Description:
Elements: H1 3-13, H2 25-37, H3 48-57, H4 64-80, H5 83-93, H6 103-111, H7 120-131, H8 142-159, H9 164-171, H10 180-188
Helix pairs in contact: 1-7, 1-8, 3-4, 3-5, 7-8, 8-9
Amino acid sequence: VNENLINAFISVEDRKFYSHKGFNLKRTLYALANTLFHFKNTFGASTITQQVVKNISGDNEITLKRKLSEIIRAYNIEKNHTKDEILEVYLNIVPMGENISGVASASDVFFGKTPKELTLEEAATLVGITNAPTRYNPHKNPEECRKKRNEVLYAMYDFGTISEEIYEEVTERKREVIENSEKENEARV
Length: 189
């Protein structure tokens, strides 16, 4: 997997990934307060490790019990696996829409490339899809997908993984994805 893809996921999903022990107490408490007092419409507190737990277990209940169980499981995963192992699992199971799981499959379907070959804007596009796979599907909603890609790029700039110059340059680019029919024709050849 290329560095742009990893940096984009970390910048958007879990900026403390390499320093926490499976959960981010501060974000969890803020999300709880937000649930009670509605500071923002939505606020995600799950770390990448917690998302691995949720995606593997399939448990999506919105309950305190489930969240506590997820935190305990994430903590145990962190005790027994390296950050790179956890990130690898996450990248292989993250839902990408169109019944696609994982960045390797999504990279092939949307760009006809391996994850290692992705450009910065392609990596940011894939990361953006994960937030709402139907809404940000590049085949069905290309303009929404592009806006979300630019939000991912801004998060990368804000987190310091890309410069302002690169951010401005890349947000202006329009990246065409492979259409479904093109991919199907290639498979027939």
